[in-house]
Amino acid sequence: MVRGRAGPQAAGPVGELSAHALVGRGPLLEAARAQLAAGSVLLTGPAGIGKSTLLSALAAEVTGHRILRCSLSQTEHHLPFLGLIDLLADTGDEILHTLPAPQRAALESALLRRTDPVGERDGLSLRMAVLATFRALCASGPVLIVVDDAQWLDAPSAELLAFIARRARGLPLRALVGQRTGAGGSRPEPRLCPPPVRAFDVPPMTAAEVTRLLGELELPRAVLAKVHRASGGNPFFAVELGRALAEHDGPLDPAAPLPVPDGLRSLMLGRLLALSSGARRTLLTACAAARPTLALLRGAGRPDADADLAEAREAGIVAPGEVVRFTHPLLAAVLYAEAPERDRLTVHAALADVVTDPVERARHLALVAPGRDAEVAATLSEAAAAARRRGAPAAAARLGLLAADRTPRAEEETGLRLTAAEDALASGEYALARGIAEEVLAHASIPAERVRAWIVLLDSGGQALAELDDVFPRALADARDDPALLAPLRYRLAWRAWLVKGSAPRARDEAATAARLAAEAGDRRTEVLALTKQALAEFHTGRLEAERTLERALSGPQDPAIRFDHNGPVYLRHRHHLLHDRLEEARAELRSLTYAVRQRGAVEDLFMCLYGSAQVEIFRGRCDRALDLAEQCLRLAEDSELSRGPAWCAVAFAEAAGGALERALAAAERAVAHSEDDGDLLFLPHSLHAAGHIRLLRGDAAGAADALRRVRRLERGQGLVEPAMRRWHADLAEALVATGASGEAAEVIEETRRDAVRLGRRGVLAVLDRASALVTAARGDLDGAVEGLTRAVETLAASPYPLEEGRARLELGRLRVRMDAPAPARESLRAAHRVFTRAKAAPWVAAVTAELDHLDVGAPRPAAEADALHALTGVERRVAILVADGATNREIATRLFVSVKTVEAALTRTYRKLGIRSRVDLARLAAAHRTGDTT
């Protein structure tokens, strides 16, 4: 279960596009920012895509430049030299007076600073005057030209800017230009921009980004999905649609057409009304169909469809292709919304007669047959089942609700609604599911129906079960003594015992009770789920019967509905493989499961398959693949109502393995915040482990120890002893050694080793050997530590865990540096570098590279450092060495793959610990160590 509150959304008033248009624009801004540091930037895209906001954001970041701006409009397009007047509005006479008289006269005339007009004979003088003016401006410092809506730049100004751009070589002159492109239009030429220039198409927003853009409106997910489709990801259009929805009276029906605001309606209608009435009728038929082809349109009563579509293509309303596609979704939305109801009904009736897909036919029938009708209801119900089978639970939920509205049999209506609610759960539309369940509870009196509705409410809460504590006693009261009703509730009490109460043993007992009740009631589905939950709790608590319980869940008849459920035994089997270091088997299990789940369409199941796959790929040393899977997790969580905690946790571990540590730590902190906000004690230790692991890699041993000690306390409190489920133990021991708590580290290692030996966890034991060697080194037995690390390297080299092998080789190299053995140290470090490079483990490659750099530049040996630098953490020591070698903070940040702020913070701590005040003192100290002079 990974559902919960989605967390905070975008702040600020929804109506202000400028406050939101940077949502999801980070990568584009980063790329444009990098280009602007060396050249010019051209931003292109359709109206409303956010070019102006991006332009403003980029210009606001520029410092040390004279910024010349012009912002243009269509109504001023015909006014000559207006763009030039805007750009040079603040250019004073002190520059103009340096120009030769003919040039000055031409420029002053163009700028309307004198009354005589610019004539044809003054054209060359004007060009040379403008060029001389820009050269004079650049002589006093770099200049940035900012032109917004360049498509409306008057022709004379455009020609002058192009003239300057062609002759700007050698000048500190750059341009930042935004220019509109039309539907299907070609990219504008960057002639206004001094080279080198790079053009960026501003992309539409994703569904998740539009959700964040409109976050404060708290619209149902299905409605937000429609806004995204209707707006085409255009932020201006999305905000306008959001305004209309915010002003809409009454409940929002996700199946109804969106209310299109007047401004957008007028914009779109102007293009549509230019078409003939026949073309509009054909397009109305097209926008009512799921997959409108020419043959379908002809069959639906549009014999001249080919001519009508040609007319629409000529007008830029639809794109070429076999299937009719509108060039912008809002064109279809406005056409459908503005059509008279009788025309819409006629179109749907015609389509119902010609379409062959049962799901689409049922939708058309429902729209043309209002009122209760048993035949229509049966058709809709059958279509919902068909949609469910083909992996479209969202469509099944909509069709099921329509069937409930149409059925004349009152005794069937509640069941149809509850089935629709369960389909909504499967599709990730939890708000819709909750609304249906609450509606059923308001009038239902049959215990089985009420309990089923309570279960929908509980399952829609996901990780945030703490908020639903009052539901359980009411649901149990409705269930009374009926085992068939009690079993699924007891199963969910098992989740609550762990998620909310933090007790795995109690969760195990509740799950066992649920399995017994389900078997008594003949409910094999609930029995299998409960046995799987029981096995999971037994694995975590180190009970040897866990494998037998899992076998009970896997044996016997399997309900197809839960075969691919992430709470079912097939999913748990991959985790069982991981306990025994069978990574390839775990990967194969998940790949097969993921393929099936994608076909089935259950959002939460797919999320958990991706989450598990990301973890397996990190173990396998496929860090690039893990990053991709973690990003898929996050996008899936953002596109649905899944809890963000697990998604950010997946991103944190993947970034720590193969990405950037700054992003990794930010993701881990968000994961912790979401898990704490949801009251989720099941995923909180995962999130804290991520935070501790990343802090350790960044050199913040104290911060790592704090986070990982908290993990240890949480797991002890929950009764968890299985060391191979969450492998944080060696990280904690390493952090403790680095902070001087080697005794506590030894205690952690010994305690974990006992459980690992008892349970046969060889992979865990190999990693503990590495940590144990660090304890040995901290106690002064360096030779014993070398022997221990050598054994760990040999064991891990034969294991399926390349990152752990690389870490052991890295520590062996560091230890040999400390022992003043540069040749063996370099050999170990280079071997670690090869391992990490193959794994594409960027942060680890950076750590090894820093160690090799220290050897290559003759850095002070750690044995000497121990006299004065023993109190420094790993990152502080590396920063100190590079400072002593004369590197700037920015150079150090680039070398170590950290931010400049991290370097500054490390230096501040170093000065405090060593009792020094400056970089000079630090360099002197390092030099003294190099010569062996400690005076």
From TrEMBL:
The lineage of its organism: Bacteria, Bacillati, Actinomycetota, Actinomycetes, Streptosporangiales. One of its GO terms (biological process) is regulation of DNA-templated transcription. It comes from the Bacteria. SMART domains: AAA, HTH_LUXR. Pfam families: AAA_16, GerE. Transmembrane segments: none annotated. Keywords: ATP-binding, Nucleotide-binding. GO terms for molecular function: adenylate cyclase activity; ATP binding; DNA binding. Gene3D superfamilies: P-loop containing nucleotide triphosphate hydrolases, Tetratricopeptide repeat domain, Winged helix-like DNA-binding domain superfamily/Winged helix DNA-binding domain. GO terms for cellular component: cytoplasm. The keyword Cell cycle does not apply. This is Transcriptional regulator. Residues 865-930 form the HTH luxR-type domain.
